[in-house]
Design goal:
Elements lengths: L1 E6 L11 H4 L4 H15 L2 E6 L3 H13 L4 E5 L8 H8 L5 E5 L21 E4 L4 H11 L2
Parallel strand pairs: 1-2, 1-3, 3-4, 4-5
Bound molecules: 1,3,4-trihydroxy-5-OXO-cyclohexanecarboxylic acid.
């Protein structure tokens, strides 16, 4: 099984960014944790990240052409307003799980709405780095 992890805007600032909300670990720490989990589970995993909407759309399309079996995406704030990312996910047959480190439904109102959720097979929010692992497990066990 081959899974693509896509991280969106501002997630490069993890560790520095609002540690009370997102924790003290960097994205590289989190990716190492995901990599170890996947090594153990014999899952091939590939990571990409961008602050730019178009790059994320290209990465979603490419995941299909590169024959990934699933995508786990943390689209950051794009989650709440990017119809283009919704359409990119809808446009390919690769099952996609939306994940968030923080509990988006317990935060500011603008975070309660995910416009990408209808294009995803499910949403996982509020479990820190475990949200990514839960997303991978959801894809593995479908
Ligand atoms: C986030 C939640 C979003 O609302 C926010 O804009 C982010 C991170 C999360 O992982 O909790 O950038 O996706």
């Amino acid at each position: 099984m081959k899974i693509k992890i896509i991280n969106g805007p501002n997630l490069n600032l993890l560790g520095l960014r609002e540690p009370d909300v997102y924790g003290a670990e960097t994205l590289s720490d989190i990716n190492d944790y995901i990599q170890s989990f996947c090594d153990e589970a014999e899952i091939e995993v590939n990571f990409s990240r961008s602050n730019h909407e178009g790059d994320i759309i290209d990465q979603i399309h490419q995941a299909h052409f590169d024959k990934f079996d699933g995508i786990v995406i943390n689209a950051g704030a794009f989650t709440h307003y990017s119809y283009a990312i919704h359409d990119a996910i809808s446009g390919i047959p690769v099952p996609t799980v939306e994940v968030h480190l923080s509990a988006i439904h317990q935060r500011e109102e603008f975070r309660h709405k995910s416009v990408i959720a209808p294009a995803c097979i499910g949403q996982i929010s509020g479990f820190g780095k475990e949200s990514y692992i839960l997303g991978i497990l959801a894809l593995q066990n479908r």
